[in-house]
Amino acid sequence: MVKVRENAVHYVAIAAQPLDVQALYEKLKAPQFGGIVTFVGTVRQWTADVETHAIEYTAYTEMALKELTKLATTIEAQGANVVIVHRVGHLALTDEAVFVGVAAAHRGDAFKWCEYLINAVKQQVPIWKKEFDTDKIRWGGLE
Questions:
Q1: Whole-number mean pLDDT of the chain?
Q2: Phi (first) and psi of residue 34, to 5 degrees
Q3: What residues form the membrane-spanning segments (predicted)?
Q4: Which end of the chain has fewer CB atoms at under 10 Å, N or C?
Q5: Quick one: what percent of the chain has pLDDT higher than 90?
Q6: DSSP character for 119?
Q7: Spatial distance between the Cα atoms of 117 and 17, rounded to a whole number of angstroms
Q8: Contact predicate 138/130, CB 8 Å
Q9: pLDDT score at 33
Q10: What is the C-alpha to C-alpha distance for residues 101 and 114, in angstroms, rounded to an integer?
């Protein structure tokens, strides 16, 4: 892990090493939570008709951690547990790029908050991707 901020409830990190998805999932488990929802984003080969070979993620780490913490504490204040970890560095096809997990008392909240968080991470957190595609290099990629 590059940088980590952790407290008794949420866990956020920017990681230079491969994500240990099982270990991150384990951080969500607690007796008060009946629903755990996770999202794991991986490097995909095709986006429409564009073929990708690899992605390189970079981040403004200190600001990224502040933004991840803000997002986590917003959901945590509603009684959930949150784990958000994003990779940086060079990633190959199928490598895990991001893990977002929410544990809540009920599944509906866990689903809703997990979707909110991954969308917010993509929109608000200063993490950039450089896609190495067959035809050219793209910054930010295609959604």
A1: 93
A2: -105, -10
A3: none
A4: C
A5: 91
A6: H
A7: 22
A8: yes
A9: 95
A10: 6
Domain containing 79 equals 3-139
Rounded to whole angstroms, the Cα distance separating 137 from 134 reads: 8
Report the distance separating Cα 15 and Cα 21, nearest Å. 12
Domain count, the chain: 1
Map residue 3 onto helix, strand or coil. Answer: strand
Could you give the CA distance from residue 28 to residue 102 in angstroms, rounded to a whole number?
7
Give the residue, 126 or 3, on which the prediction is more confident. Answer: 126
What does the DSSP 8-state code read for residue 42? E
Read off the CATH number of the domain in which 20 is found: 3.90.1170.40
* Exposed / middle / buried, residue 22 (Cβ in 10 Å: 0-12, 13-18, 19+): exposed
Residue 127 has pLDDT above 80, yes or no: yes
Report the C-alpha gap between 16 and 2 in whole angstroms.
6
Q: What is the predicted pLDDT for the residue at 6?
A: 46
Rounded Cα–Cα distance for residues 44 and 95 (Å):
9
CB contact at 8 A, 82 and 76: yes
